[in-house]
Design a protein that fits this description.
single chain, alpha/beta, Immunoglobulin-like, Rossmann fold, nine-stranded mixed β-sheet, 21% helix, elongated
Length: 434
Amino acid sequence: PSAPEDSGPDDAVTDTFLSGLALSVGTLEPPFDPEIGTYAVAVVSSDSRLSVTATVARGMPSLWLMGPGLGPEGEPFEAGVESPSVLLSEGDNLIKILLTAADSSHTRAYNITATRAGTPPDTRFCPTVDRGDPTDGVTTITVVQPPAPCNAGPLWAGWHCTVLQSAANNNGVVYTVEARWNRVGQPVRGSFTWVTGNDSSTHWREGNNLSASVQDQLDTVDEVRTIDLAWSGMGTKTPPRNGFVNLSAVYADVVEHLVATGVAEGVLGHFGNSGGATLGCNALVNHGMHEVWDGVVAGGGPFWIDLVYLCGSGASQGTRVLIDEWTWFEVNNDTPCARGSGAQPSFACMSLIGPDSVFDFPHTTVSLVTGDTESAFITTEAGVFYRAITARTKTRDFPVAPHNVLKTQSGAAVVLQRIRDVVDAGSTRGDGNR
């Protein structure tokens, strides 16, 4: 084994030695020795994340962890405290722990090669609805009720409504979607589809929140059209509608239909909170919406990033109950965590970050808005997603707000600004995908 990578004057050497190194999964080979700088660890296929806990010999060096999912510059962490998680792909993953002396005169690196075992792919239950090509001109959407002025009360005065229906997806579910939009017959700089969390059969504008105020400001000040969606049908009555990955395939088709019919025009984007955030991010990474959307604004999420991890050792019993009873409820009453096996459906293919996910969005802005009183679990999950992607621009905001960030003026102001940022930046993809 080689010595730790070393730089700087000899009198600073001991200020950048580790005195201990522990891993969340697997066992270091060889056993940790401060004088050894290169290690290997083998983990099983269900171990999709790895974190470290390091202690230092003396002094107060800064510590950084570099590896997959942590961004190009890595993430800082504190001695004696578990680090952020590295995302492990099948095969070899290179991880580096970098120590820098307090006076910046000296650095030292410890390197770990983490090898994750592979498993045969099982995608029998992965979505198959027009997967990954929302610009091909082919959709599964039929019009049940043609566009017409909404007859839904004064809150919707001047808005138009239509009712759409999907073909059955791979496990037999048919979805009905009601779309309502404003700025009919007026100039439109951009269009954002809005999807609620929790019970998605409701419209944002009708909820007990500040959505109507945000939508109206975008309308009157920014010439931005809101397309407020509500879902119904088997699998939609409690979130996340027979699995986020399944529903997001249909969502991609709905957006394609709205673009093709001129309802969605100009700069295009998505806003959703909680389940709506997770739905939009699923469509982005798993169903080609990075080819269509110029921006995604996600509040209170996304979450359920990796079921291999969450249904293994990465989530509390309470969270696994939510995955079973609230989040991944299948039409046949089977759920991944309850099953304890990744066979049907595959853990990986039902995760937000799955085997076919795309993580690079050079033409799409991604903004995550997390309330300052949000649960630690959702804040962490959103952070894993944030670190895993690259984008035209990406931001994280933590306004004074609860899980539904549109419950406070602070949260609503951030959402309004992030949507404006997307529209003001315009589109860099040209007209070919419009």
